[in-house]
Structure of Pyruvate kinase protein:
Amino acid sequence: MHSTHLLLEEPIRMASILEPSKPSFFPAMTKIVGTLGPKSRSVEVISSCLKAGMSVARFDFSWGDIDYHQETLENLKLAVKSTKKLCAVMLDTVGPELQVLNKSERAISLEAEAFVTLTPDQEKEASSELLPINFSGLSKAVKTGDTIFIGQYLFTGSETTSVWLEVTELKGDDVVCVIKNTATLAGSLFTLHISQIRIDLPTLSDADKDVICKWGVKNNIDFLSLSYTRHAEDVRQAREFLSKLGDLHQTQIFAKIENIEGLTHFDEILQEADGIILSRGNLGIDLPPEKVFLFQKAAVYKCNMAGKPAVVTRVVDSMTDNLRPTRAEATDVANAVLDGSDAILLGAETLRGLYPVETISIVGKICAEAEKVFNQDLYFKKTVKYVGEPMTHLESIASSAVRAAIKVKASVIIVFTSSGRAARLIAKYRPTMPVLSVVIPRLKTNQLRWSFTGAFEARQSLIVRGLFPMLADPRHPAESTNATNESVLKVALDHGKASGVIKSHDRVVVCQKVGDASVVKIIELED
């Protein structure tokens, strides 16, 4: 958490800041997760999003049915084919999310100082005096004086579209509140968030399980984003559920930290999960505003040291309706990168925003600029110190490969991997150059048919900062003789040259297994 995270050449010429950045094949090392929805589900728009830098597509089941999302996914597959850019799929569960149901979809005006009643009776019409909700235990969970926040799904926190309520009276199952600010609720669905109150609903609901069985299994999802993760046990239960569903035992689980309860059990959750999503929208309601940054920095640091991806949400809310982010948002994206985030997750901005492609492009550009001044040297020392001695065999190879690449100013690190673990460990040390992870498929059988692994592993590295996967030819095993390794290496180098990452006379660091030994070698390319 040092202030020396910035690497600025002293004395910095202010004029140099304005020089245009050189375009590169990889827009940024930091990855971008885009949520696909009404404004971003046609083949054309998805193709543009992929070209602009989106590498993970998020499907949010808080709204839209299975058929709707399936149609979007088919369009994504066509876009991936036409752009030749890999994209991973993330299924976001609804979890114990409290919702206000407005079946008529008429706008609801709420006046400050007036009273409104929240009722579990979902048959009633939503109005300025009465809001039906999807949870019958609200009156038992809250007490007089508690704060309740209601906003359009993925609320941007702008006070004209969201409302603060204070509980004044409990009448049976109904909760009577006084309205704190004048607002208009438009649309059919609003989320309801009660500050620092535990909601007694399962983290993985029956509806979520149904979606995973019907949609997740069929589409071999790469990531499951587990909304409202509150305990490590939530992740264990989700993993056990996935392990019984075909290929989904390979799906990675990202715990979404959205409230004080998840924050309190953060360390145990991090141990169980494959990655963490910091849901700053909900956290911003649960935490005092002055504490939000501190949680972000501490959580990202812990993820970095554990070598697990940290994903930050809610960065450019204003781009839902505007072509440019605010100054605060632009700085926020850069700070997320300097803090060590692996990926930026865009929600409303791409889901229902007017400028999905521009948003991805601008966020990518800000990330790339921040990466240039990321103090890798300090970060490397900190990570090595944290890992301590003796290092594991793999960890020592990974850190040595990164150190060698930086010392010889290599243009790229190439790593051969079949499980993806070696590549993730190299990325953990945040090298300043891209890491090409060549995923070597393995043959497996269920006694009835042969199949290759590798596609999951390749796509799952699309959320890790600095990792760029390519699938190798399955005829080349990862730990084989030198001859076949040379031919796979040639393919990887050709891929690097074609994409402009490697030029003649560049140095490249290669990390591979030869027999039982792991080898790091430095090669200099001829013309």
